[in-house]
Structure formats: structure tokens, C-alpha cells
């Protein structure tokens, strides 16, 4: 193994690594090798807690050096510098967590080969949590590193691995930015590893970007009633910063029912420097709304699709447009979200495709009531395979409490925009598709042109119906379609080019060959599945 190059701060860099993508990939592959027999869900908690501890330590040391330089520059006597360096307010004022002596990464890394490394990690995180209780209360209450089933040798190797990566000053980025990217990358990787369960805490980044780019949460209260690991908030914060705003331009409010996922979200917000209110504890939004008086300016949400097991009260005041069926919470989520919108609020919600046309158990009546209340601003049909964790086709609902010409926008009262994006995206591999930056921009620009927002005026965007992609419909036309909202019912078909220079015999031969290839692959997969089923101990 080649020797590690030392940075100016004395931390090691990964040899031969020149980009963030390489850092993330190397860390993931190396960490995954150490997993052993632990399942992805348990291992996720280990790795992400360690990444968090490395982040708070790196950013603390980074701030400590900055503070020392500032004090020397200001002429503060050497005898007094140490007092300032040990003043917790000097760190909290800069948005940095206070990391007490003995809990810093260097202290932990020095004991990586110790048989009590798990005990040291649990104690360090507990101390950091208590020293930063406002942001971290309850996050590390569960002690996970010193359990009897944890291989302390492998845990020490994982600590060594993270010690080998320099997270400060990489390509001009701060520790917060670098660790934030690594944390998001790991969340995505773990979501894929966990399959369907991964969907409980992770929404594909390209889908989140569509929501954020359409809603444009420049300033105000941002809410997610089922926030998972907090990805909606992170993207909203990135949007604000990229438009020269400040992190505190938005106030974040969220709720999460799963204890583990709530802890992930708290850590995620902390790493990105977002002071969010995710309540003091995890809780079911339907059973115990943790933000009962909140009226949000923007709501972004990806609720569990077609949730059949949920807490339902028929007299719930949130059911203004009809009582949702006991067997499906889709319209319960939508009505909860609408109940949280402020006077001029808007929302973007990921939903299963069935929500656009279902008439089961009164869902059609609820949808019609939402439409007649003129709350539905836009519907987007998404392409398949965006969600690795589910094969259920998805769509986006956008609600607006105010469709008037306020703030110079185009008056769209009594109208809804339909966008058919089902052919967009590019395949990452055989099973997963992503929306490209160009796809996201086209969808968002179309909405802003239709709505006449400031973004549209600035970019000189004008709206026009586009066959095969978008259509602005009146309420009367939606009524004629019995209040079904699938964009395919409204968007005219794209004009097709009938010119085809390929001779018919060649085309039949090519398509036949492709079909036989599919048959062969189907046969191969059938054999693989049969072999694996035979191995099951039933």
C-alpha cells in the first residue's frame, strides 16, 4: 500500500483521488467490504453515525484553526487565545457543533484497535448530543456500537477507513459541504441496498429536484409531513443557496413516523447546517400531528404509496373534501397537506398513478372536490423506473391555494396544467432511470411559463401547449373527463414522422432478432429464479 500524503492540516488524503465522485465511490466500496454478516439496515446506522461524528469533528477543527488565525490577526495575547478556543459560543455562533475534548475524531481514531472502541463511540456521541441538545436531542439516545453482536475488530477497521479520508478543504469545499455530499451519497446507496424498505427514507434526487424547481421555495416555511431522511429539506436549502439566498431564509418543519429514519433526518439536517423542527420525537402524522398550528408556504412530500394500515378517524377536521377510505391513505395525505397550506401556499406531492383516476371507496368524489375547489395547479406523469424501491408508476400533484395574478403572475383560476413526462429520463442501468438536468429544466420551465412567475419573466419564457408534452385545460374539460387527472387524457399526441427508410423485410428481421433475444433473456432469468427458490429452506 502506498504511503498516504499528508494535508496541511495533518489529515490523510486518499492517494490518487482527484474528485468528489472518486472519494464517495472509494469510501462506499471500502465500507461495504467491512459489512460482514450485518444487514444493510443495521449497517446503515453504523456508517452514517460514523460519518456524522467525522463531520462534526472535522468542521470543529476547521473552525478552531480559523478562530486561532482570527485571534492572532486581531492581536489577542497568546495567554488569552486558549480561552477563546474553548468558548462554546464561538463555535455555535458560526453554526458549528461543540465537540468536547475526548470525543473528537482524533481521540476515537487513536483507540480504533481497542477492544472497547464501541463503548468509546457510544460515549462520544452521547456527550456530543448532550452538548448540542437543541439540534441533536434524542438522536443518539439508542446505543448501537457496543452491542454483543457487533464485531469490534470490523468496527475499528471502519473507523480507520474514515480516518484515511480528508474531508476539509477538498477542492475548495468546507467539511460541511464534503461530508454533506458523502452523507447523501451513502443514503442513496443504502436505499438501493435495502430495496423496498429503502423507499421509507429516500426519494430519488431527480424527483425531489422537480418538486423544488417548480415550487421555488426562496423564502418562508417549508414542511414535509413524512420527511424520511430529510432529502426534501436538503434540496430546498440547496435551491436557496444557489439563488444567492441564506440558509435561514427558509424555516424547516417536518415529521417522521419511523424512529430510525427520524434519527437519520436529524443528522442529515445537522450536517447541512439546517436548523429544522422535526419535533422532539418521531410520531405518526395522522395520529399525532406535531405541528398542529403550522401554515406552510411550501410543502414537499413523498408519502408511502397506497398505505393500507393507517390511523383513521372519520370525524377528523382535515377531511374537508371527503373521508378517505380505510384501505388507502393517498387522499388522507393530500388533505392533510392542503390543511397545512397558508393563504398563498403551494405544495408538490409524489403519488401513485392510481390517485389520478381511482373511483374506489369514494376517492373519485374526493378528487372531484379538490378539483372543484380549484386547488390542483399541475399534474405531471412521471416515467417508469425512477423509483428502484417500487415498481408502482408515480405522478406529481401540485396544489396552489392562490391561482390569481398576485405578484404579476398569470391568472390561472379554473385551469390546470398537464405535463406528460413519461418518456423522459435516461437509464442508469437495466432497472433504474433518472431525470436529467435538461428534463428537470424543461418540466419546471413549462410550469413557470404557464404560471407567469418571476423566473419565467426573467428568462423570457412564454407558454404554449405542446403536443406530446403539455396542455393547459379548463375546469369544464376536466369535468367532461369525470375529474380524472391523468395527463394522457388531455395532452394531444405528438406528431409522428411517418418517413421510414428501413425496408420492411429488414425491419421484420431486426425486430424478430430483438424479440428472440428477449425470449432468451426471459428463459435465463426464469432458470435463475427457479434455482434460487429451490435453495430456500421452506
Word description of this protein:
The protein has 538 residues and is an alpha/beta fold. The protein is built from 18 helices and ten strands. It has helices at residues 20-33, 40-73, 78-85, 88-92, 105-109, 117-131, 133-136, 152-163, 175-194, 205-215, 231-242, 259-271, 330-339, 363-372, 437-451, 454-458, 475-480, 504-535; strands at residues 220-224, 250-254, 296-301, 341-352, 376-381, 394-400, 415-420, 426-427, 433-434, 470-474. The protein has an eight-stranded mixed sheet with strand order 2-1-3-4-6-5-7-10. Helix 2 packs antiparallel against helix 3, helix 2 (40-73) runs antiparallel to helix 9 and helix 10 (205-215) packs parallel to helix 15 (437-451). The longest helix is centred in the first third of the chain and has 34 residues, at 40-73. It is globular, with a radius of gyration of 26 Å. The two termini are 46 Å apart. The model is unreliable at 1-18 (pLDDT under 50).
